[in-house]
Specification:
2 strands, single chain, mainly alpha, two-stranded antiparallel sheet, 235 residues, 72% helix
Length: 235
């Protein structure tokens, strides 16, 4: 490990700690509901993948923060250590999210060679923004519910999930390749990025709708990334 690697780890854990403190402060001081503080932390954690891309040149070191939070999030969930993130009614979704991010970046992130990290990033962003906004809109404005097995969703929330996922996947596939975050990554032609975004977003929306009790934090990123990769290589 280099000095830059150690610095990257310090920054990553400082960011994560600050995110938890801000979330808890919002809950305690400003009486923000845990559902909102949980989504705040969810989005903040998902967006940190760009911090990791900027700070590390080695994927083996860069995934350490993701991997360590599999265990840390388990402790937070098991003992309800951070009420802004886990309440008595919370699912173990934060654990699943850390698992999915770790797996995707371990498979697709190769910063010093031909980099496929846009595939992983698209999957994470669909979960980060699509799921978060779908839950907020569905819970507060959703009027038309539907159910699959143990999963209850709203059509309004699912529509938001689809539209948001299309947007974020398209932005990732067009802006991330050859940027400072991934200078050696695969590139997408615009029409391929559009087709990929629509197909992957549809898959993400379907998977999110049928995944019970927080498992969408695992299934959505993995399935979305899988469809992004399939469409890319088929076209």
């Amino acid at each position: 490990m280099t000095a830059n690697d150690y610095m990257g780890l310090v920054i990553s854990y400082t960011y994560a700690t600050a995110l938890l403190i801000i979330g808890e402060t919002l809950r305690r001081v400003f009486a923000i509901k845990p559902d909102l503080t949980r989504k705040f932390i969810h989005i903040g954690a998902g967006m940190w993948i760009f911090g990791v891309l900027a700070l590390f040149n080695s994927w083996e070191i860069g995934i350490i923060p993701f991997a360590s939070f599999i265990f840390l999030n388990y402790l937070f969930y098991r003992y309800r250590l951070v009420s802004a993130m886990d309440t008595s009614s919370s699912s173990p979704g934060t654990i699943y999210f850390a698992i999915s991010v770790t797996l995707l970046f371990a498979v697709f992130w190769r910063p010093l060679s031909v980099d496929q990290v846009p595939i992983a990033t698209a999957g994470v962003m669909a979960m980060t923004w699509g799921d978060a906004l779908a839950a907020l809109i569905g819970k507060n404005y959703g009027k038309h519910k539907y159910q699959f097995a143990e999963s209850t969703r709203t059509w309004e929330g699912s529509l938001v999930m689809f539209v948001t996922s299309v947007v974020v996947i398209f932005l990732v596939l067009t802006l991330l390749p050859t940027s400072i975050f991934s200078p050696n990554s695969l590139t997408w032609e615009t029409w391929i990025a559009i087709v990929t975004a629509v197909v992957a977003a549809a898959a993400a929306t379907l998977v999110e709708a049928v995944s019970p009790h927080g498992t969408d934090n695992l299934t959505v990123p993995l399935v979305t990334a899988g469809f992004v990769g399939i469409v890319y290589y088929l076209t």
